[in-house]
Structure formats: C-alpha cells, structure tokens
Prior knowledge:
alpha+beta, globular
Amino acid sequence: MSGAVDNAVLQTIRTRRVIRALTPAPITREDVATVLDGARYAPHAGNRRLHRYVAVTRPSLLRALRMVSPEMLPRPTAAIVVCVDWAKVKATASH
Length: 95
C-alpha cells in the first residue's frame, strides 16, 4: 500500500465508532462468560496471549470506567476491559 492509503486506512480504523442500542436489563453471568470465552479463543498475535480480560458489572466500577473513558456509552450494565500485559509484550519482543 502507498503511504496515503496506509494513512487513510489507519485513520478510519482509529476513528471508527460502533453505536448500539442498550437496554437497562442486566446481563447474566452466563452471557458474560460466553463473551469472555469467545475472547479466549479469538486469534492472538503469535498465540502469545498478551491480553487479559476483565468483566465489570458492578455499577460503581462501571461509573469509574466511564470517568476514564469519556467516549464510553452512557450507561452500560456490563463492560469487558481488555488489558495488555506490557511486561510480557516487552519480554516477547526481545526474543
């Protein structure tokens, strides 16, 4: 790809937003487990498993997440937080 196309593609990826209609109904633990199970089996870079997934359903923690993520949807009943183990990333990058 040319530099201009690369930049356009990256800009689109970085600014893309998906908006979904949410209901105030709580999500079941089984549904959260299903989503997490899907993430566990999703492809990972070199199968290194550098991500950790944290399910958040407690309202106080969801409020805290919204405080540090201003573009987060207004009132989710659950969120999956994707965390990166940066020490593991650095360790695997040096090999």
